[in-house]
Amino acid sequence: MTLDVTGLDVELAGTRILDDVHASIRDGHLVGVVGPNGAGKSTLLRAMNGLITPTAGTVLVAGDDVHALSSAAASRRIATVPQDASVSFEFTVRQVVEMGRHPHTTRFGTDTDTAVVDRAMARTGVAQFAARDVTSLSGGERQRVLLARALAQAAPVLLLDEPTASLDVNHQIRTLEVVRDLADSEDRAVVAAIHDLDLAARYCDELVVVADGRVHDAGAPRSVLTPDTIRAAFDARVAVGTDPATGAVTVTPLPDRTSAAADTSVHVVGGGDSATPVVRRLVSAGASVSVGPVVEGDTDHETARRVGCPCTSVAPFTRLEDTTAASATRADIAAADGVAVPVAAAARPGVRGLLTDAVPTLAVGDAAGAPEWADRLVACDAVVSAVGALADTPSDGV
């Protein structure tokens, strides 16, 4: 059952909260709504489920205007897990979950499908709390109870407002695994406002980036979560890479570019884990960093992928001379303001042949083992300040 949002405007107390929002959520898809605080994410979800009447535009569920449906009819199509997990009355957990069956009760007030309540509680891990007063639970436990209530509602469309906000890491993953499975195995259309960009990228098919009440971008996580988009929507500088464990996009927040290395282009030669501390310092300082050659799967390779640095890799035990990787590395070096070579990597066969006298070279590490061909030797914790003047460093040896 698709959910289509077209030209949606929402004003609250005379303030425009949403402006010309468009979105489409198909069966079997999990769509994440991301954006900074106050962007309008919660308002969008409340307009989607009919709680807020828009000033313009439509929300259609299976082709019907959700705002024209009765409360019971809308609830049979759309279930919602709110951000606020507070419950004011002393109901038992089972009673709260049973409330999800209210849209399905007959006019005589009975619902014959009680097994769906049991399944919902088991699926969300709250069955052991069935007889407990819901007000005695922690905020995270109550959040899971409200998810169970929404599952018991058995609606084909599910809306979740920050479903992991009150949960520990273990239950964040469990909750999103449940939500992902609802889309995959039950073909539900799911929309979730998610604060954590890494979790959103890992679990969602598509992301809708909302900023200042408008859709700033929408699409697959890898196409949407770019440094430029995140800077524009969140006013934050980030590195975007790939999580080596999940293969999903990962977003690493960085400080604003205030160091001497900001906007300097540096190529870092790697090997094993020698380049990792250098890359981390330079990326955090705002330098534009490329890496290579590194061995596929080693620490330097994974670090470069995680922070989104262009990286040239080779298979283990590969000789560097006359390889495609060597050519790619020479091109990266030629385009850089300078090269940083960890002392441990300088001894790799073939590394010296990748360098050119036209690009200044820093050896990074201790004096012991430092190559004579480097222009300057610096300690790792001084590499950022050294890179700041790298383009002006003369090539005259250590």
From TrEMBL:
Any one Gene Ontology molecular-function term assigned to this protein's record: ATP hydrolysis activity
Pfam families: ABC_tran
Enzyme Commission number: 7.6.2.8
InterPro entries reported for this sequence: AAA+_ATPase, ABC_transporter-like_ATP-bd, ABC_transporter-like_CS, P-loop_NTPase
Keywords recorded for this protein, A-Z: ATP-binding, Nucleotide-binding, Translocase, Transport
Record field: catalytic activity: an R-cob(III)alamin(out) + ATP + H2O = an R-cob(III)alamin(in) + ADP + phosphate + H(+)
Source taxon at top rank: Archaea
Broad class of enzyme this protein falls into: translocase
Domain annotation ABC transporter: ranges: 3-237
Described function: Required for corrinoid utilization. Probably part of the ABC transporter complex BtuCDF involved in cobalamin (vitamin B12) import. Probably responsible for energy coupling to the transport system.
Assembly, per entry: The complex is composed of two ATP-binding proteins (BtuD), two transmembrane proteins (BtuC) and a solute-binding protein (BtuF).
Name of this protein: Cobalamin import ATP-binding protein BtuD
Natural source organism: Halobacterium salinarum (strain ATCC 33171 / DSM 3754 / JCM 8978 / NBRC 102687 / NCIMB 764 / 91-R6)
Upper classification of the organism: Archaea, Methanobacteriati, Methanobacteriota, Stenosarchaea group, Halobacteria
Gene name tied to this protein: btuD
